[in-house]
Amino acid sequence: MNTPPPGGRRFRIRPLDALPTIGVHLLALAALLVEVETDALYVCLALFWSRMFFVTAGYHRYFSHRSFQTSRLGQFVLAFLAQTSCQKGVLWWASNHRHHHRHTDTERDLHSPRQGGFWHAHMRWLFDPEHDETKLSRVRDLARFPELRWLDRNWLVPPAVMGVTVLSLWGLDGLLLGFFGSTVLVWHATFTINSLSHVWGTQPYATNDDSRNNVLLALLTLGEGWHNNHHHHMLSCRQGFRWWQIDITYYGLVLLSWLGLVWD
Prior knowledge:
Blueprint: E1 2-3, E2 11-12, H1 19-29, H2 38-64, E3 69-70, H3 72-83, H4 90-102, H5 113-116, H6 118-122, H7 140-143, H8 146-153, H9 157-194, H10 215-220, H11 227-232, H12 248-258, E4 262-263
Antiparallel strand pairs: 1-2, 3-4
Helix pairs in contact: 1-9, 2-3, 2-4, 2-9
């Protein structure tokens, strides 16, 4: 199916590819049909905030931008934990994000609200067959590690391990609300950076794109909402440049550096 956006470009969308995503949303909503213990709510909150950190620190700041360093083991652990968010493999994620930075808000951008509107930028772009395959040419620095290529091919293994673990420890309500519910929340929090962070906020830096700083999105995504800062200096590990710009992912990375797990 071709979808004409406001700017005139047409995007190919395969509706059947959206069925797994719809299914995860329905499983999260199914928590309304069962008796939910308080523990399941705590699991949901814990998995949301912890996986949000590994999305921002792992997928984004490490694998996409290499804004800090870690060991080979640390790299694998970051990749595994980031992939528990069910946002496909680290090589796929990083390759598409690097492409976004090369072509931000132009016709070649994967998920620009300027080109395709809000819903395309938020998540409809995920169902475009053009973006199915991992473009290894964009991530040659990462693709030289066979364990990362394996994780990228088998990207469902980490979320499956987490889902089974949650089910065994907290039962059905833990699985539906704790795992699937937090997965949906992490998805949409992540997706707001592609959509809302390019239409809502301030632009202290002239970056030749629509990136914005937004304090509410920064709090929701542990610092990613300082998006204009990020597009101004994409290799910076810290995205909240001012003392008052809260960047929880950066604070977490500082703590890990004190433990010797990350550096530079």
